[in-house]
Amino acid sequence: MARMANKERKQRRRRILDEQKVSAAAVARTKFLEVIQGEDGRSAKMENLIKVLQSRLTILSLLYFKIVEADRALCLKRVAYENFLVDQTNEKMKVGQRLALFCLHIQHETRGSVVVKRLQSSHPQFLRCERAATENVKKDFFSSPDCKYCGVVVENVFKIENRILLDAFQGAAAGSDPGKVKGLFCGVPSDAVEKLIVYGVGNSGGKKGAFQESWYDYKNGGGGATTDAGAAKRAVDNSSTIPFPRCFSRHSTLEEDREFVKEGQEGAIPGTDSNIRFLALCRVMIGKINVIGKNSKGFPHVTDGSYDSMYSPMQEEYKLLNEEYILPEFLVQYRFKGRTQGRDWRGEAPVHGDGEGSNDDIFNIDLSTSVIEGCKFDRKKEKRNCKHIGAFPVTRSIATRSGGGRSGERREGGGGRGGGGMSNNGSGAIAWTNYEEWIRQRQNAAIQKEAVTLQVRDLIEKSSVLARHNSVRPLFAEEGN
What we know:
By secondary structure, the protein is of the alpha+beta class. The protein folds into two domains: 65-75 and 345-467, no CATH class; 110-214 and 224-338, Phosphoenolpyruvate Carboxykinase, domain 3 (Alpha-Beta Complex), CATH 3.90.228.10. Helix content is 41%, strand content 16%. It has a five-stranded antiparallel β-sheet. It has a four-stranded mixed β-sheet with strand order 6-10-9-8, with no helix packed on it. A two-stranded antiparallel sheet has the order 4-5. The radius of gyration is 41 Å and the shape is rod-shaped. Residues 398-425 are annotated as: Disordered.
């Protein structure tokens, strides 16, 4: 009896435990499902916030890259510009040394028959030559919209006193009717300057014995005395002869240079001056002249020798056929002045408007101001609107942090939108040709990079708060919007 009672008690307890286990499992299952359902809800919200965070970090990363890219482009342009200036300075020093050495030796080697003097910038003859070269410019010479230059800059003027050429010129005038005598310009290739000074235009003067030997031109060599050409004689022998017949004009801008000013110097930086060039201001006798048709461009080929010169009313130039009727009096060293006004860093005209479609980049970075302007893509219309980036107020928040002011503000001398920060300042000089403007734009680039970095730090802090509190609403609130 006792055994049976004990067995029934154990069975009853087992049934109670089984029922409690079933009840506990049901409660646990219910609570577990509730937890899972809650976690699933929070995971969806978390996933959405992570996507927003990743999107904004991606935008800021691209924005930072574009600022660095614009800053790098600005620096590369500045380096290229400074290298070009160094090359121009070296060219000026070499040409100056070459002409100074020639002027020093030519007077002695010709026994005073040929004298070349460099005029001071305050000399009256220098001023007259400068005025003639800079003011006597053809009206439409620099008017083309694609012209790379805008004027003439005179650097040096040399006075040529060649007694041999003067005697030949006066003899030609006495032996025939010289007609009108004019002061006209002609272009001189840089490698023909020395021969022009000694022999004039053409090379017939080479037979007139301009150079005379002197006692120190001899040196002991081998079994006897041999002559060694002086520095001026060597320079003349190594120089080129100016092609003749040649065109002359009262204008310093000759037709032969029209293509050059349009295409620019090869390898030159837009907005910089050309290489060193030369003009000869000559006294010219017109003689018997042939005036060609008003609408004729260029000069016909003349072989009968019945004319001393031709004139083209269309080109406003003379073509001299008798080289004895030409007396070089001044050699003008000049450059064509580079055009910068109204052109961007590529030498192209800027694009005006609201910025829509004016830039192929994702962001329209402007380094002339510390304010960052981003772009928003309109997926429906597939157009760009340069105001904000997505739903993230980059312009307002970054401008506030960087101290750059509100969107659209510009510092004094700023150049507006676009071009990777390569904008014109008030004087028309582009950023990398103006050292102060270049430094200011580099500082603006540093401010913009710092502002983007601060935004990244803010997003990281907010993501930490999100991880700790699993809070949604206050994390990415956009203050002030």
